[in-house]
């Protein structure tokens, strides 16, 4: 369980960053499959899980609305 909000999409849909930040993790995570984690300036962290493929790597700067995975 977590205190976050889950969003579902059709397979192959673009996964976009909800806000600008730095990619702090990109790869497989137990229970989540392919994941991307983005740290934001306000201290929040967003996790994008169950991706078919990740399009960003650790250290990448991402902008709000940028496609980071599929």
SSE layout and pairing:
Layout: E1 15-16, E2 21-29, E3 33-39, E4 45-51, E5 61-62, E6 67-69
Antiparallel strand pairs: 1-6, 2-3, 2-5, 3-4
Beta-strand fraction estimate: 35-45%
Give the termini distance in whole angstroms.
24 Å
Helix content: under 10%
Computed CA radius of gyration, to the nearest angstrom? 11 Å
Class inferred from helices and paired strands: mainly beta
Major beta-sheet overview: 4 strands, antiparallel
Overall average pLDDT = 94
Helical stretch tally: 0
- Apparent shape: globular
Identify low-pLDDT runs: none
User: How many strand segments?
Assistant: 6
Q: How are the strands ordered across the major sheet?
A: 4-3-2-5
Order of helices and strands: EEEEEE
């Amino acid at each position: 369980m977590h205190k976050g909000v889950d969003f579902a999409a059709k397979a192959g849909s673009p996964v976009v960053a909800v806000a600008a930040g730095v990619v702090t993790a990109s790869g497989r995570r137990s229970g989540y499959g392919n994941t991307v984690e983005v740290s934001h300036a306000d201290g929040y962290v967003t996790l994008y899980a169950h991706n078919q493929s990740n399009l960003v790597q650790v250290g990448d700067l991402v902008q709000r609305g940028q496609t980071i995975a599929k």
